Amino acid sequence: MHILIVAPAYAPYSGVGSVRMMSLSQYLVKKGNKVIVLKNSPELWPQHALKSRVPENIEAIDVYARGSFKECMEAYKKAVEEVIKNRHIDISIYSCNPYYTAPVAADMKEKHGMKYIIEFRDIWIKDEFITRNWLKRLKKIISRLPFRSYEKRVIQWADAVVTVAPKECEILHNDYPESKSKISVIFNGYDDERLSGDAMFRNEYPKEYIGVFGKFGYYDYEYVVEMLTAIKQLWFDGYKIRILHIGDLDKKTAMALKITKFPQEAYINTGFLDYSQGMALLKGAIACCLIVHYKRALGTKIFDYIYTDKPVVFFAHQDSAIASILSKCKNAFRCESADDASEAIRKIIDENLETLGCSEREVYSRRIQNDRYYKIINEIAAYE
Fold it and tell me: Does domain 195-364 fall into CATH 3.40.50.2000?
């Protein structure tokens, strides 16, 4: 098959948004398919975030999408038209967000009959916002309402709709009952293909650290203050535990470090690293930390932590999707306060707990998820 993937977030960009389609495109090539990827030009990303390489045998085409929603949409529409001018495409996959590529999918279906899968890594109109401030939430909801007609059209025209979390899939089922049969979940998962054999990465950091992969305080300022307070107390109690933050230092974390007067030597920031390098560092941690205010969403980090098989200290709602998965793991500790986190970390250290103990670990590999994706692709490509 000839498969077109439209994914603004893609290598060399190494942010979490690029991992999913990099994994799938590599999988599709190994299955004998021809894969073309339309992606944002590297200059549209921060220079320090360009750590990944385009997988072999992928034809990657840069799109300079800058400006308003409409301007970016038009840039991708033009790019898709250029691709199909002299080639036959059996099926296309549009990975969102950003969402300005989504209307292009419906336009191409109407104009050229191009079959497509629309993928929402975060659902569009009813996306879960990370702020606790209800006024800010209301403003964001209102700002997205004008795009509802786009979302409706994209889902109606789609051959399949993919989400990454069961609770988000339920929302789309309720909002678009006529399309329910074609809306399904494919988890993110850990990228076992890129981690095979493990990365050769020299770990020069102190051994006693708790690993944080990606965003730390970005999703919830209050929770990160509680976590830092716990580590600070342990530090002064003689537990020389550090935070090893693999990723950019976000504003909320920087503020929390300042407010808590966190010991400078107890926080280490690596900056952006390639996925395999970051995972190699996580495997050297005594535990991993996850801070998320979401109730519905399931990002990539939770699955990466499951892969490392290290104990997890996490702040999340009791009825969240994340808690529902980690509650099945022997050494995952849900916290709501600094005291909770301090108690959990002491237990991990004092009892020498070395594993997470997730019985469903293999289920969350990207290989399994890509198999499910490929089944949907083949079913769509086969019918006329």
Answer: yes
